[in-house]
Amino acid sequence: MKAVIDRYAKAKEEQLGVNNATSEIMKKKCPQNKQLHSKSSIHTPKHKLWQREAASLRQQLHNLQESHKQLMGEELSGLGVRDLQSLENRLEMNLRNVRTRKDYLLKSEIEELHRKGGLIHQENMELCRRVNIMSQQKIELHRKLQASEQRGIVDANKSPGTSYSFGVAQDADVLANPELSQSPHKEGAQREPGAPELGINGVTDWSRGSLVHM
């Protein structure tokens, strides 16, 4: 429809240009030949051709306007059953084309959304993998820190307690062997001749004499 309107406007402009050129020529020429040239220019074959073309374009424009109104559901009173059936078929065909185009666009959009969803899922999987790696590294660092702290505590307990541990070992040997604790007393008893000797019942003669005197 737009092309028909453009053709009509162009033909009209050309016709106006021809008329203007003819009038200019008529003005420049002598008054005696003015009427003769005007008649010859009006009846030229080219002028008639443009007139027919303009009339045809006007008729096409009118038909297109009528068809557009009918497609919009307007001015249907002058149509018969066949015309209405033909109009219905045209509308159904146009509607089918519209639905086909709409379905194609919807399908394309759905495929694009699926593609973007797949990319987002892959990004989420990559982020989860990185988070798991960071968690494992954190756990490993915490374990190493605890192990280093425990080694530091053990080293601190070992370094200043060497003599103390040696004394504790000696005390443990004495408790394990009571004879070692009694041997110094025996040697002391042998080195002191004047010391009283214990009897079998644990009473010395000196102590008996003291008791008798009392």
Characterization of this structure:
The chain is rod-shaped, with a radius of gyration of 64 Å. Helix 1 (about 1-30) packs antiparallel against helix 2 (about 35-40) and helix 1 packs antiparallel against helix 3. Among the domains are: about 1-75, no CATH class; about 85-145. It contains seven helices and no strands. It has helices at about 1-30, 35-40, 45-70, 80-160, 160-175, 180-190, 205-214. The model is unreliable at about 185-190 and about 195-214 (pLDDT under 50). It has about 210 residues and is mainly α. Keywords: Coiled coil. GO terms for molecular function: DNA-binding transcription factor activity. It comes from Eragrostis curvula. This is K-box domain-containing protein.
